[in-house]
Amino acid sequence: MANNISVTISGDCEAITVKMIAMSGVAHTLQAKRNGTYITLTPNTFPNPIPGEIISLTFTASQLQTTTVNQQTGTAAELSGVYMFSATDGTNVATGGVVAACNLDCCIANEINDFLSCPCDPTESPKLEKATKILLLREGAEADMSASIQNPDNALAKFNKAVEICNNSCDCGC
């Protein structure tokens, strides 16, 4: 069966939309993971769709909850990380995912702004190199999720490395 599902994040990074072509007339159940951990979705079904119909659900950050090993829940503070969604009608399964990297985009912009305001020779500042590394890791994570065979583990490793680099401080290097 073709994988007729798409997952997108809004430009303001406040919502994720899951769209798919209904696989049958049976209710489709939706499950999700954020960074490999299951999320409690409300709602979590596409009730009784018409086969071939385009159906969608949109979730905001406040709707996405992470369930931990000991079954405690907490509301997600922002859309950040690698999100995977699976829809099933009991027989067929469709999966799709997205990288929510808004925090990395802000980090890249901040590093470039800092680079532009460094008082020394730009070739002496590590700011541009740092921004480039974060950008390439973010792009690599997105490529892992847009491939015909998605690799959320590789995407998450790249995303986490980009966050780690972002959180490390470097001065102008003059």
Structure description:
By secondary structure, the chain is α+β, with helices and mostly antiparallel strands. The chain has two domains: 5-100, Immunoglobulin-like, CATH 2.60.40; 102-167, no CATH class. The protein is built from three helices and ten strands. The chain has helices at 102-117, 127-146, 152-167; strands at 5-9, 15-21, 28-34, 37-40, 45-46, 54-60, 65-67, 73-75, 81-88, 93-100. The strands form two sheets. Strands 3, 4, 5, 7, 8, 9 and 10 form a seven-stranded antiparallel beta sheet that branches. Strands 1-2-6 form a three-stranded antiparallel beta sheet, with no helix packed on it. Strand 1 and strand 2 (15-21) form a beta hairpin. Helix 1 runs antiparallel to helix 2 (127-146) and helix 2 packs antiparallel against helix 3 (152-167). The chain is elongated. The termini are far apart. Residues 67-76 have low confidence and may be disordered.
Fold blueprint:
Layout: E1 5-9, E2 15-21, E3 28-34, E4 37-40, E5 45-46, E6 54-60, E7 65-67, E8 73-75, E9 81-88, E10 93-100, H1 102-117, H2 127-146, H3 152-167
Structural class: alpha+beta
Shape label? elongated
Range of helix content: 25-40%
- The level 1 CATH classification of the largest domain is Mainly Beta
CATH architecture of the largest domain: Sandwich
Would you give the CATH topology of the largest domain? Immunoglobulin-like
Mean pLDDT: 85
- Put simply, the count of helices is 3
Q: Which regions have little confidence, pLDDT < 50, spanning 5+ residues?
A: 67-76
Radius of gyration: 19 Å
**How many β-strands, per DSSP?**
10
N-C termini distance: 57 Å
**Count of spatially separate domains:** 2
Which sequence of SSEs, written as H and E, runs from N to C? EEEEEEEEEEHHH
Note the main sheet: 7 strands, antiparallel
The proportion of strand residues reads 25-35%
